[in-house]
Amino acid sequence: KVLYGSAKLSGNALVASSTIRDHTRIGSDELARLLDRMVAEGWVGRVQDDAPARARWRFNRGGNQENWVLLADPGTLRLADVYIATKDSKAAQQSLERALALVPDLLPAQVKLMNLKVADGRVAEALAIAKTVQRQRPKESTGFVLEGDTYAAEKKWESAIKAYRAGIALTPGATAEAMKVHTAYMRSGKRRDGDPWAEGWLG
């Protein structure tokens, strides 16, 4: 956001490291590591300000004041995505938690945070987020689907079926949720229950 916004205001695509530090709460060391990761992913480029005729692209540290240029689409790149892509789950979760402290019902952040917690084996915390979504969106199936997906990831099929069916009760015509219910029945070895349920839902 800083790279995109600063460049747009100044008319210059290059943004200095000092400008980025001034506009973020990220410490110098963390910022350096983060920018290095973004360079590796091809999301930003590093340019030295002492290049003579034209900017000289650099992908190693050192030299004078470093400038940065955004290469990725600013509409799709988020700080948490950077951490996720570089497999820094702890930093990604912290970033998402900071976002949710500002906007508690930011669903994309909630979903990403849940997925990270499930991957880390922190299932109880993931389920707590699903329950929060249910309270925030009481007329939607979203929170129940997230709860069901969390149980499904743990192969707790009975609990997954219960959660999915609770979501369907709110949105009876939800095909995706119905397919999840039937899949959970199949995975749990209860095809005799799953097939009649699916026929009843279709009928």
The N- to C-terminal Cα distance equals: 50 Å
Backbone shape:
elongated
* Number of helical elements: 11
Question: What share of residues is helical?
Answer: 55-70%
| E-strand count | 4
Following the backbone from N to C, one meets helices and strands in this order, namely HEHHEEEHHHHHHHH
Note the beta-strand portion. Answer: 5-15%
Mean of all residue-level pLDDT scores: 76
Radius of gyration: 23 Å
In the predicted model, the low-confidence regions spanning at least 5 consecutive residues are 51-63
Classify the secondary structure makeup into a structural class: alpha+beta
Give me the side-by-side strand order of the main sheet. 1-4-2-3
Biggest beta sheet summary: 4 strands, antiparallel
Textual characterization of the structure:
This protein is an alpha+beta fold and 203 residues long. It contains 11 helices and 4 strands; from the N terminus they run αβααβββαααααααα. It has helices at 2-10, 17-22, 28-41, 79-85, 89-102, 107-119, 123-136, 142-153, 157-170, 175-187, 191-202, and strands at 15-16, 44-48, 56-58, 66-70. A 4-stranded antiparallel beta sheet has the order 1-4-2-3. A hairpin with a 7-residue loop joins strand 2 and strand 3. Helix 8 (142-153) runs antiparallel to helix 9 and helix 9 runs antiparallel to helix 10 (175-187). It is elongated and about 70 Å long. Mean pLDDT is 76; it is low at 51-63.
